[in-house]
Amino acid sequence: MNEALFWAIFSMSGVGASSQMPALPSVSEVLVVDRVPMLRENMVRPVLENGDKLAVLVVDKNSGKVLYERNKRRVQYIASISKIATVGAALQENNPNEIVTIRDEATRIGWAGIDLMQEEQITLKTLVEAALIPSANDAATAIAQHVSGSTANHAEKMTHWAEELGLENTTFLSVTGLDIQKEKPANADENYDPDHDKNWTGNKSTAVEVAAMARILLRDEWLRDIVDDQVFRGASVDGVIQHEKWTTNKLLGGSFGVAGVKTGYTELAGQCVVTSATSPQGQEVLVVVLGAEDRFDVTRKVLSWVYDSYW
After folding, report:
1. I need a labelling partner for 264 at 20 to 30 A (CA). Which of 4, 88, 246, 296 fits?
2. How much is the pTM?
3. How far apart are alpha carbons 231 and 253 in whole angstroms?
4. Which of 32 and 165 is assigned the larger pLDDT?
C-alpha cells in the first residue's frame, strides 16, 4: 500500500450515518499534524508471544505514525475482520434504513449468528450492527444477498472496494471470513486429505491494510458507536422477532480505553482483533493483531507499552 495513501486515509474526517461512505481523498492532500508522538529514550520493546502467524501494528490515529510493528506487510488470513469490508462495501450505495427480507441461505450459515428467521424483515442498519458487534455470519450473509444478490457477488464487491482504496494485498472470497475448502483436484490420489490446511483458503490482507479499512469504518460516528457496544439488541421491523447477543471482544469495558473495533478467528487465521483505544493522556491509537494465540493478551501488552513509551 502506498505510504502517502495510508497517511491520507488516516487524515479523513467523520461523516454521518445517513450518508454514503465518503470518497477517498487525493493522495496529494497535505496532512496537518497537531502532535506527532515521540518515543521516550531507553524504552524496551514489549515481549510478545512467538507464534509464526503473529502480525502486529499500532498506529497513532492523529498523525498516522507507526508506533509499533511486527510483520505489518505480510499477507495472511484475517477471518471475521473481513466484516469491516462486508459493511464498507454495502454502505457505499445502500441506505441503512432499507428493509431486508431474510432468505433461507442466511438462516443456515454456521458458527456465530443471531438466529435470523426465513422471510423475517429487518433493516440493513440492524444487520450491520449484528455483523459488527457479535460478528453474526447470518447477518453478513443477509447483507450480501440484499446488496449484491449473492454472497459470491458481494465478495467480489468487497475486493473491488478494497482495490478502490489502494489496498493491493487484500482479497475476499467470502463475506463472513470463514475458511473455505478448496475444490478437490481431479488428479488427487488416495492420500488426499480434505482437512489439511493446504486444502483450505480464506480472505487475506495485511496488518497495514486492515488498519486502513478500520480507519475508513471509524470515520462514521454511527459505526464508531456500534463497535463500542458490548451487546447487540435488534428486532424485526414489526417487532415480533427479537435478537440479542454479546460481543466477542473481551477488551471492551476494560482499563485500556478500548472502543471497538472487530474480532475474528478461524483455524487458518488464528486469533485476530482490531482495536481503537485512547490512553489516559488522550492519545488515540489503532491496534491490529493478526494470527495470535491470545489476541487480547497481545493487545493489552502493546497498548501498555505504547501508553508508557510515547509522549
Report:
1. 4
2. 0.88
3. 11
4. 165
